[in-house]
Amino acid sequence: MARHRRAEAIEEDAPKLDISSLIDATFLLLIYFLVTTTIQPREQDLNMTLPAAAPSDTPPEIEPKLIKIDANGAIYVGTGGAQIPMDSDADNRNVPLLSSDLKAYSDLAKSAASEPLVQIYVDGGAQQQRVIDVLNALAGVGISKVTFTDLVDP
Prior knowledge:
By secondary structure, this protein is α/β, with parallel strands linked by helices. It is built from 3 helices and 5 strands; from the N terminus they run H-E-E-E-H-E-H-E.
């Protein structure tokens, strides 16, 4: 009987890729981007004084400014016939007319040595992003006393 000899498999000289340095470079880039990223304040981090559950017995020192947001995203200031339309483009996140009006109101309240107070009425069909835009405008001019209301004079 003949002895069968098994042939040994020839090792192929396939090129190998050492990726350990690529992993190091990836982690260095990740650390770089984490360190250099600027952190934007979230809306919940804005310093706002929201109303308490029970109404206050003392009247405010200055007449509160009423801001109304309707279902289309239009923003109005005032009540009844004295309502002034501010910003009506709901797609535009900036509200420059409202910001300038709030700045004037804030300056007037501070010159009278009182804290500015804003009441916001939001229509049920309004997008919540529009409410966030108004809150950002309030925070931008330094108004921190905000009350949400459901009462609007006709």
